[in-house]
Amino acid sequence: MLNSTRRIDGVVPMTAPDASGLVSAPPVLSIEKLVAGGQGLGRVGSQVVLVPGALPGEKLSVHIGDKRRGVHQAEIRKIIQSSVDRVDPSCSIAGQCGGCQFQHQAYPSQLIHKGKMLQDTLLRIGKLSVPDIPAVVPSLRAFHYRNKVRFVVFKEGSGFQLGFFKRGTRIPIQATDCLLIPEPAKELVAKLARWLSIQRTLPVFVESLEVRWSEFLSQGLLIFRGKGRHKHQARAWLEAFGSPKEVAGFIFEYAQSDRDRGSKISPVIAGQDHLIERFHELTVRIGHRSFLQANWPVYEALGEKLLEWGEDLKGHPVLELYAGVGALGMTLARRGALVTMVESNASALADARRSATLSHVGRCRFRIGTAETYLASANTGEYEAIILDPPRTGLSPKTIQELGRILVPRIFYVSCDPATLARDLSRLSSFGYSILRIQPFDMFPQTAHIETLVELTL
C-alpha cells in the first residue's frame, strides 16, 4: 500500500496520490518572469513557486520543497519546454557554487531581464512612478571581468585547494578555473593552486585568499586571511611564494584567536599593500583594506554617466557620502565641482587623498565619519547635490531622516541592490523627491546582480 503524501498549503508535492491512490506526476510550472535573486517565478493554483535555473516562457516539471517567506522553493526535474535563450553553461560547476545564477541564459537575454527585474522591483516594493528605464549598459566582457575574487582555502587529500562554497552550504568545492576571473589573474591563481596543493602543512591557519587585479599595471594583490600565533611565521610563509613579477604584494590579515577576529591587528605585508588603477584621467590608489569595484570598465561607464548628468555642477558644492577611494567625486572635482568626500573607512579615505594628489585634482575636502554623523552637521542650502553610494543594505533610517531635513536639490544614488534602492527611493519620495532619470549597468554578468544610477530632484 502506498504511503499518503501531505499537501503543503495547497501545493501538490513532488509525489502526491491522486483519487485512484496512484502517485501523480510532479507538478508542471509555467515560468512567468525572473525575480530578485535570479529565480524563475511560477504558480501552482494560488501559490507562488520560485525555481533557480528557470527562464521566462519555460514549462518545467519540478520538485516543490519548503516554503520560505510565503513562497515555495522548487528544483527542476525536467525541462518540458525550453526557452530560446537557454544555453549550456560554460563552467563545469555552474549551479553548484552559487556565484553565477545566469550562465544558462544567453547574455543579451540577461540584460533584457535584468532591466525588467529592476522595473518590477521599483514598482512592487517602492510603489514608485518610474520613468521608462533605458536598456542596461552591458559589460565589455561577459566573462573574465572580475578583478576581485575571494577563494576559500581548504585541505583536500595531502595538500590544500582553492575553491568556493557550494550553494547554500559551507562545503567547499575546487574552483580555480572560474571563468569570471581575467585570464592573467587566472594564470596567477593556477600557480598559487599548484603551490598550495603540494603543501602538507601550513605554519599559519589560512581561511581565505582574495585575489585583486589591476588591468592598468597587469599586477595582482594577494590577501590571505586567517589566524596565526606569530608574525614571523606568516612572514616566512609569504616569502616562500617568491616574488613573481605579476604580484605587487602579499598580505596576511590575521587574528591570534577567534576573539580577535575583526580587530585592527597590523597585517603582515611583503611588497606593496595597494594597487593602482586608472579611472578615465584619474590615477586611483586602492589599498588592501579599501573597497574595490569588481568590474572596473563598467564602473568607469557609470562615472561617465554621472559626469554627463552633473556637467552643470562646475563651481557648485557637492557632497559625496560613502566615498570609498573617491573616484566618482574626483571625476566631478576635475571638472570644477567643489567636492566634500565623506568615508568611514580611514584606509579608503587615505587612498582618496593620495589619489587626488597623484591625479593633480584640487577642489576636494576629505572627512572621516559615517553618513549619518556628517549629515547631522550639514545645513540646508550648503550643498547643491549629493552622491550616495551605500553598501547593499542601503541607507539607514537616520540617513534618510537627515536627507529629508537638509533637502539638497539633487541626489545621485548609486545602488547595487534593487530592493533596498526601491525602499530608499520610496522613503525619499515622502520628502518631495522624484526620479528624474535612471540608468542600470551590468556590473556582474552571469549573476542576478545589477548596478543602478538614479538622479532625484525636488
Question: pLDDT under 50 segments (min length 5)?
Answer: 1-23
Q: What is the gyration radius calculated from CA atoms?
A: 25 Å
Q: In this structure, how is the largest beta sheet organized?
A: 7 strands, mixed
If classified by CATH, what would the architecture of the largest domain be? 3-Layer(aba) Sandwich
CATH superfamily membership of the largest domain:
Vaccinia Virus protein VP39
Say what the CATH topology of the largest domain is.
Rossmann fold
Give the class from helix and strand content and strand pairing.
alpha/beta
Number of helices, counting only DSSP H or I runs of 4 residues or more: 9
Count of spatially separate domains: 3
Describe the structure.
This protein has 3 domains: 86 residues, Beta Barrel (OB fold (Dihydrolipoamide Acetyltransferase, E2P)), CATH 2.40.50.140; 196 residues, 3-Layer(aba) Sandwich (Rossmann fold), CATH 3.40.50; 130 residues, OB fold (Dihydrolipoamide Acetyltransferase, E2P) (Beta Barrel), CATH 2.40.50.1070. Helix content is 23%, strand content 31%. The chain is built from 9 helices and 22 strands. β14 and β15 form a beta hairpin. α1 packs parallel to α9. The N terminus is likely disordered.
